[in-house]
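BACKBONE GEOMETRY TOKENS
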Amino acid sequence: MKMRGISPGWSGRRLEPSREYDSNMNKKYYAHSLEGRPPKEWQPLEEHLKNVADLAAEFAGVFGGEKFAAPAGGSHDIGKGTKAWQAYLRQVNGVIDEFTNYYDGHPNHAAEGAKLLYNLSKQAGKVLAYCIAGHHGGLPNWNDTGSAALREKLAVPQADISFPHTVAELTEKLPFAIEPERFGFQIQFFARMIFSCLVDADFLDTEKFLDPERSGWRGDYPGIKELHGRFWKEFNKLRAKADPELNVNRQRELVLDCCLEAASKPPGIYSLTVPTGGGKTLASLAFALNHAIKNNKRRIIYVIPFTSIIEQNAQVFRKMLGEDAVLEHHCNFIIDDEDWRNKLACENWDAPVVVTTNVQFFDSFYAYRTARCRKLHNVADSIVIFDEVQAIPVEKLSPCLEVIRELSMNYGVTAVLCTATQPAISFSEHFKAGLRIDEEIIQDIPSLFKNLKRTKEYFIGTLSAEEIAARLMDFEQVMCIVNTRQQALDVFQNMPESEENIHLSALMHPVHRTKKLDEIRNRLSSEDNLPCRVVSTQLIEAGVDIDFPAVFRTVAGIDSIAQAAGRCNRNGRSPVPREVLIFAFPENLECSFFRHAAQSAEKLFNLYPGSLTAPECVRAYFEDYFWKNQQRMDIDGIIEDYCMPAATGNIQFREIARFRMIKTATLPVIIALDEESRDLAQALEYAEHKGGILRRLQKYTVQIYPYQLSEIERWLESPVPEVRVLYSKEIYSDVTGLQCSPPRGQAFFG
């Protein structure tokens, strides 16, 4: 029989039970057993299916998908309703009864519910078949090699029983506003959201039966209204300490007023454009809390590009809202072994405030595995603040914008694009892939930028590493930011050896980097104005609260220049603007990312001298940079090659999951030089379960390229003092992009 695809005009068929319900037989069919306990204490299959159906429907109800989630939940384990599977359950528990003779190994139960729904509806049932067939191993491809393909699994179901409540009526109308040209993206997105509801409901009900103590650790968070009260109590304390006569504080109050006014408006896509130091972090939190109360939103999610920002912002949010309200979820954050509530919250993001990374957020919306997708349904009906949104790589922009667009359009999300350099991502005739922004929160952006102007930015020409080092020595306190690790090392090595001269680089592991930042802050805040000359990669540009009287910046995108300027005269200590000096190195051997961004910026140096961070200059830069690179906005073809063809219903989930915000060929290396890191590194050799140790070692871990590993292996053949010299010069690599999966291999210094 020819399979019908799914199209925007599809009509669903009501799904009904295909067999008579046998109540006596059902009492002997179980979903889960308890070790060492008799079957009468096991969880009945009917009970589990009903619980998961109800819970999945509750989760999906926030975006109108309950009539899809209920049959998915009610049918997901119906494959356990075979005599063979029940015989297997008895076998592993040493139970002998009337099922024993049906034992035939460990049958795959996941496909049975998929078969049932697919054979009752080739359209609605087909969408749900992906979810049920993948509720353990992950969403499958429709077409694949061998038996892995979903289409190969959808023969007539073999379950011995079915239950009336397991299959709900599916209406003919999908619960989202269909855009025909985007339908392929929309249907695979919807299927993944239903999948999220199903797998989270399945995990939670199973956990509740098998481990009620663990289940009891979940939830019990303060509500949004309580957080609102906590925030204003703490915020008013900060206000009382601030000098209202300082211009910067007056401007921050204006930003806050704009945010509070916008918070009373309906959900949508907002932009919040505030120059660095304008108080946008706390103002955006005030917007989110007020908007959540006004529009009954469930949670607030901050999506942040850099770990240097996320760690700082999460600390601020905890201070304002309380330790019990904020979940910090990214690969560098290590949760205490005793903090079970936060460990469990990382699984499904049920906390009221979640702080995460671009990588964690966007990768999850293209993932196929259960662990990555489980949290997605909790993003619906939330406020999602995308901080420093300009940091999304242009090569990944299209897939990211599609996620923001769909969440806002059909899943009740209020999106806030929050930045100091609002990029030109708004829809226009020249940029039709852009987002339709409902409102800019700041009412008078030019005036705000003018009133918060604390720097002047000039291009000073081409200079060598030696010349830059000499110029830096003319200042008592100055920072130089460059694009690459090698550039930072070249400049630093041309400066005299002194504690006054500091090399801050992504070549440091997180613990070392934190110590250096503390040293810099101490020197800058000293009453004696201690000399402090810093050479850094761009890791210091965003979110790091430091204030230099002068900054040098090698040529980069205007957004990077603006971020560098945010570290100069940050707190307005100088009444006159201070200089940010941009220079070029003699040879441009940098990667295409820096080269393309620099080329767009260089066009503006003569047009906006001294005003490179002005809104009109920033917009001109992004219009050129984005519009010129529209063909590179989906460099992996995720949208066009894999999502849009899903309109037929033949979805290739595992091909879609090729999307990665960061693709790296680096290898993790553990720098084990202090007592804690040495003990942890040695424990790896004997540990049966290495995951916890590896997470604790992440703060001592860097990423290196394979060729660098070969060099290190040669260095390690030398005496230990040589390794110490290597450490002191900080010649090791970057932790950026480190994922939480166990490293493929480790190397140890020390």
